[in-house]
Each structure stands twice: as structure tokens, then as C-alpha cells.
Specification:
Blueprint lengths: L5 E2 L3 E9 L3 E8 L5 E7 L7 H15 L9 E7 L2 E7 L3 E3 H8 L4 H20 L12 E4 L4 E3 L16 H8 L4 H4 L6 H17 L9 H10 L5 H4 L5 H10 L11 H14 L24 E3 L6 E3 L6 H33 E3 L8 H10 L3 E7 L9 E5 L5 E3 L3 E7 L5 E2 L8 H10 L4 E6 L9 E5 L5 E2 L5 E6 L3 E2 L8 H10 L3 E2 L4 E4 L9 E5 L5 E2 L4 E8 L4 E7 L7 E9 L5 E9 L6 E7 L6 E7 L2 E8 L6 E2 L1
Parallel strand pairs: 13-16, 18-21, 23-27, 24-27
Antiparallel strand pairs: 1-2, 2-3, 3-4, 4-6, 5-6, 7-8, 8-9, 10-11, 12-15, 14-16, 17-20, 19-21, 22-26, 25-27, 28-31, 29-30, 29-32, 32-33, 33-34
Helix pairs in contact: 3-6, 3-10, 6-9, 9-10
């Protein structure tokens, strides 16, 4: 992008001031306000790269959550054609790295003051759920007036053997990695504190604690080596300051300071031990100037302070006229000032509406109605549907003025990732893996003699396809293989045993067909699937049973009196069986007959139980068989 280009019809890029692995930074002039700003533009080669777009958007999201005097504040975010950009406040000065390179070791009080301001920024960030992950002197800006600003929040860096060899930016970062980042783990608030300890060490000694020929060698030192003692390099550093620095650089995160505030407090105490005081500006107080001594017969002009001798009794009439005119002008001025103030307070002030959860078009209408401008940034989000505002800056109910800009963070839908390969994994492990990523899994079983029982045979989507958490997943699971036996002519009890021996199950819903031949009662008339069919193990087989209606029992039950409607359900199954041969439901009103009877056809000579439920609560149980009547328990 050429310098002097006007971005988004608002920002004139005047010069390039930095370049990183992901973005180019320009100094620019905001044509609307005339102020200098810093504009970070995603490098053109990454405009279609979802990973870099995601990292760029995460920086915008992180920055939009924070407003702090020690953090480079986000002013605007948007797109101009294919160019994604962030607008930050422009800090006139140097990086802390440049200061260290120019001055070498910094004095302990100065190093502590700078560190406390870094920690103040981190405390604010951590309270907002933001971990910087890349604290280093290159990201600490020292303003020309001495203010400290932390930059580049929200840039994710992967500390593995691949990224540790990619370019000077990562080479710079590896000197400040925490041990957990060096081993490829996730960064936490404790990781930021470790990196801050490394920055403090460098300010006190003029050099980083660990160095080497390549990034991997440096990372290994973070994991296993102790740094050269500070007192060996800078004997004048107070022991209390050294103790704070070394605790921040503990290998074990649990042994470090747990909050940035805690570390800052110890640094202040360390300075106070040697009588140092923090150079923090006190609140300004009004200083009354002594009134000039006026000699008798003199007056002092309110503008120049020069003295004018006025003779008593001279031009008193003109003075009265002058004072009246002056009073009239003052009253008019106050009226104009009051009118402008009232206009600004009543007509120009706004309150930022709550836009979170709205569709983008709805939020835009609401902002337009309130005479507020908006800037939209699309960020992948696994929680909010695409097109929904999930964050805003300023937050709801903040004061604003007409034409102020509200930044809308809009969900671009869930983040995409490559579908993992789960073929030949156990069904249980594959399901846990996919559901841990938020995906919904449907499992089908299919007969297979080639893939082990309960292992994945096929998957949809296929491995390495781009998917999101909303993509439905279907896994085809090997059910092994078995053959359906011929069950026709067997009794129900014999059929259950035959199916069990073939690793099959009996479908819980039986079908019946009437017969006039008593000898066929209780035997299998038909089956589905047919005999000799190859199926997956544990397939349920549906049976049709002959019933000879004269072999029946009358089941009787007297429902208790009730002033409410009752739902009565009967469930009949043989002892030791999981199949219900009968299940019926009847609803009784308050005036219905309490006596309930129904005819039950028993398919074989096993003992059966009739379970009676009232409103889904077991009320009683009756035991029956072919040769005896029913008994209630």
C-alpha cells in the first residue's frame, strides 16, 4: 500500500513506521479530527488466510475490551476494499527495546517504575479475560513525555518447533517465552508475569537472561536453566528488587506471582526499602497568586496587570456608562454560553444503546436512529450465530455525542477447522474427540467382517474437510457380523435363546396373529429380517407370534378412588426376559368405574408379571402363568 493513500476516506497514510509478520503499521492523519493515529493493516498476502484473519480480528476484539492509560487504545476497526485495518492511538517515542539498546542497564528505580506501569496494564487486561501472550520490550512503547504504553494485545503465538524458526519476530519473542509456552502449552496470566519478569531482568542487566544460536536452544534454557544472577551483572540492584524479579521468573507457574497487582505491590515495597519513592504526579492543586500591592489612588488592569493612576472624582460618569456596557456584554455572553451548554447537554448528548444479541441490521438501525456512526468487524465466534452483534465498544449506557463511532463486533459464524480422521478409532473415543470440539455426532451401525466390533468404518464429513461446530457428523460403526437363525416354529422362549446365542436381540414389540390350532399357540409365525441374512451384531429381530385366544387370562385391577384423572398402564413380561409381550394404557376420569379388566393371551408356560402403573408410578404387581390364575403383590 502506497504512502499518502487515504484509507476508508478518512485516514491519510503518511509513512510506514513498522512491519510485522502479520501486518504493516503506518503513521496516519485522521482527516476528521486532524490527529495523528497509527493504522495497522493486514498484509495483502493474508487477506484470504483464515488463520491470519482470525488473529487480526482477535487483536481487535481484545483491544475493544480495554481502555487504560497504559495500553495503546483502539480507536477504529474496519475494511477498505480488501484491506482490513485497525486504528490505534499514535505514541510518539521509542520502544523499550530501543531505550535499553541506547542506554544499556537502567537504574533500579526507573526499571521498577516502568515495570509497575506494564503490570498496571496487565492487571486491567487480565480482569477483562485477556492474556497478552507476547510481552517483550519491542511491544512496550515509551512516549516522549515518559508515559508507558503496552501494545499488540491479543496476538496468539504458537511456541512449537515449527514457529520457533520462523523469522526475527518469533526469534525476538522466544527470549521472553514462559516455560509453558516454550513447551507448546497454553499461555495464562502467569505466563504474562513470567515475561514481565524477563523484561525487568533485561532492564536491570542490559541483557536477556537466556540466549543461544537458535530459538529452540533459547526455549530449552527457559525450561531447564537458571539465569545468571542479577547481582553478578549489576551489583547495585537492591536485593529486594532481585527477589521480585526472580519470583516472577519461577519455572513453575504456581510459584510465581498470581496477579499483576501482587507483583506491582512487592516492587513498590522493594523501592521503599531503600527510600525510593514512585515518581507519580500528584493531583494538581490551585495555586493562588499574591495580589499586587496597589498604592492609594491606583488600579490594576485585569488584562495586562499594568498600573493606571486614576484621579479621584475624574470621569465618574463615563465610568458608570462603561460598567453598564460591560455588564450588558457579560450577561449576553452568559446567555449565549448557557444556550450552547443546554444545546449540547440536551440535544447533542447520547447514551449508547445495548446492541449485544441484535442482528447487525437491527443494530445499525438503532445507532442511526440515535445519530451515532458505527464500524463493523466480523470475527469468528462459536457461541453467537452469524450476523449477531456479540460485543460493542463503547459498552451499553456509556455517554456519547452525535456522530460518535460505536465499534460492533459481529459473529462471522463458528470458526472453521479441519475434520479429524477418526476411522479405525473406537466409537467411544471418536465420539469423545468430536464432542469435545462442540460437534453433534450421529452413529449408525453396519455389519462388517473386516473392521473390529464398535470401531469406526466410515465418517461424514471426510477427514481434512473444512468444518465448523455446526457441521453434523455421521459415523458408521462396525457392528461385527452374524447370521439370522431360522426361528419359525420355535417357542418364544426358544427364539430368545437362539437370538442370544447369535449376538442378536429380540425387538421389544411383538406382533401377533390369530390361529385356530391350539398347538401353534406361542410359536413363531414369521420373523424380520429373514433367516440366513447377514447383519450387524446386536441387531433387533422382530417376531410375529401365533395366539390361540382360548389360552387367555382375565386381568383385573381396581383403581383407587381419586378426585383427579388417572392414567393406568399395564406392562407384561416374563421373568428373566426384557421383552414386554403386552403393554396397555387406560385413562380414568373421576366418575369412571374403578374396576379395570382386560384379556391377556399368554404365549408360553413361563411365569409372567403384570406391572401396574398409576400416573407412571408403580402401584402393584401381579404374577400369572398358563396353569394358574393371577395373584397380586
Amino acid at each position: 500500500m502506497n504512502e499518502q493513500k487515504i484509507l476508508a476516506n478518512r485516514y491519510r497514510l503518511t509513512e510506514q513506521i513498522g512491519m510485522g509478520g502479520m501486518a504493516i503499521v503506518y503513521r496516519a492523519v485522521d482527516l476528521r479530527t486532524g490527529h495523528n493515529v497509527a493504522v495497522k493493516v493486514l498484509r495483502p498476502e493474508f487477506n484470504e488466510d483464515r488463520e491470519f484473519i482470525g488473529r487480526f480480528q482477535r487483536e481487535a476484539e481484545a483491544a475493544s475490551k480495554m481502555t487504560h492509560h497504559n495500553i495503546v487504545n483502539l480507536l477504529d476497526v474496519g475494511m477498505d476494499g480488501d484491506n482490513r485495518y485497525l486504528v490505534m492511538e499514535y505514541v510518539e517515542g521509542k520502544t523499550l527495546k530501543e531505550v535499553i539498546q541506547e542506554r544499556g542497564k537502567l537504574s533500579a528505580p526507573l526499571a521498577c517504575q516502568i515495570t509497575i506501569r506494564i503490570l498496571s496494564a496487565l492487571e486491567h487486561a487480565h480482569r477483562n479475560g485477556i492474556v497478552h501472550r507476547d510481552i517483550k520490550p519491542q511491544n512496550i512503547l515509551v512516549h516522549a513525555d515518559g508515559h508507558i504504553k503496552v501494545a499488540d494485545f491479543g496476538i496468539a503465538r504458537i511456541a512449537d518447533s515449527t514457529t520457533l524458526t520462523k523469522g526475527d519476530n518469533v526469534m525476538g519473542s522466544v527470549h521472553y517465552f514462559s516455560p509453558e509456552q516454550a513447551r507448546g502449552g497454553g499461555a495464562t496470566a502467569a505466563s504474562d508475569i513470567y515475561s514481565t519478569g524477563v523484561v525487568l531482568y533485561e532492564m536491570l542487566t542490559g541483557r536477556v537472561p537466556f540466549d543461544g544460536d537458535n530459538p529452540v536452544a533459547v526455549a530449552m534454557q527457559h525450561l531447564h536453566n537458571a539465569p545468571t544472577p542479577i547481582q553478578n551483572i549489576a551489583p547495585d540492584v537492591p536485593p529486594a528488587v532481585i527477589r521480585v524479579c526472580m519470583r516472577a521468573m519461577e519455572k513453575n507457574p504456581a510459584a510465581r506471582y498470581q496477579t499483576a497487582r501482587e507483583m506491582a505491590s512487592d516492587l513498590r515495597a522493594a523501592l521503599e526499602e531503600r527510600g525510593e519513592r514512585m515518581n507519580v504526579p500528584e493531583p494538581e492543586t490551585e495555586v493562588k497568586q499574591p495580589k499586587p500591592q496597589v498604592a492609594p489612588g491606583e488600579r490594576t488592569g485585569s488584562v495586562t496587570g499594568s498600573r493606571h493612576r486614576v484621579q479621584e472624582g475624574q470621569s465618574s460618569g463615563k465610568l458608570r456608562v462603561f460598567l453598564i456596557a460591560l455588564g450588558t456584554i457579560a450577561v449576553a455572553g452568559l446567555m449565549i454560553f448557557g444556550t450552547v451548554t443546554i444545546f449540547r447537554q440536551v440535544f447533542n448528548n447520547r447514551t449508547v444503546p445495548d446492541l449485544t444479541g441484535m442482528e447487525l441490521t437491527e443494530a445499525q438501525v438503532e445507532l442511526t436512529r440515535n445519530n451515532l456512526k458505527y464500524s463493523v468487524s466480523y470475527v469468528t465466534n462459536d457461541t453467537y450465530p452469524k450476523g449477531i452483534v456479540y460485543m460493542q465498544n463503547p459498552v451499553a449506557d456509556s455517554p456519547a455525542h452525535v456522530d460518535d463511532c460505536v465499534i460492533l463486533m459481529v459473529s462471522d459464524g463458528p470458526s472453521a477447522f479441519l475434520m479429524p480422521n477418526v476411522i479405525n478409532m473406537s466409537a467411544a473415543d471418536a465420539t469423545v474427540l468430536l464432542e469435545s470440539r462442540g460437534m453433534r455426532v450421529t452413529r449408525d451401525r453396519e455389519a462388517s467382517g473386516d473392521v473390529a466390533l464398535d470401531y469406526v468404518m466410515r465418517q461424514s464429513p471426510a477427514a481434512d474437510e473444512m468444518v465448523t461446530v455446526d457441521t453434523p457428523v455421521t459415523l458408521t460403526i462396525s457392528g461385527g457380523v452374524t447370521v439370522i437363525p431360522n426361528l419359525v416354529g420355535q417357542t418364544l422362549q426358544e427364539a430368545e435363546i437362539s437370538l442370544l446365542n447369535q449376538n442378536l436381540t429380540l425387538h421389544p414389540a411383538l406382533k401377533y396373529v390369530d390361529t385356530g390350532i391350539s398347538e401353534l399357540h406361542g410359536t413363531v409365525a414369521a420373523q424380520m429380517p429373514d433367516a440366513d441374512t447377514r447383519v450387524a451384531q446386536n441387531t433387533a429381530v422382530t417376531l410375529t407370534i401365533y395366539q390361540y385366544r382360548e389360552n387367555s387370562k382375565i386381568i383385573s385391577f381396581t383403581a383407587p378412588e381419586s378426585e383427579q384423572q388417572q392414567v393406568i398402564r399395564f406392562a407384561v413380561q416374563a421373568l428373566g426376559s426384557t421383552v414386554e409381550i403386552d403393554s396397555r394404557t387406560r385413562t380414568l376420569g373421576t366418575d369412571d368405574d374403578r374396576l379395570i379388566q382386560y384379556t391377556l393371551v399368554i404365549p408360553d408356560d413361563r411365569t409372567y408379571s403384570v406391572f401396574v402403573y398409576i400416573n407412571d408410578v408403580l402401584n402393584s404387581q401381579q404374577v400369572i402363568n398358563q396353569t394358574e390364575g393371577a395373584g397380586t403383590t
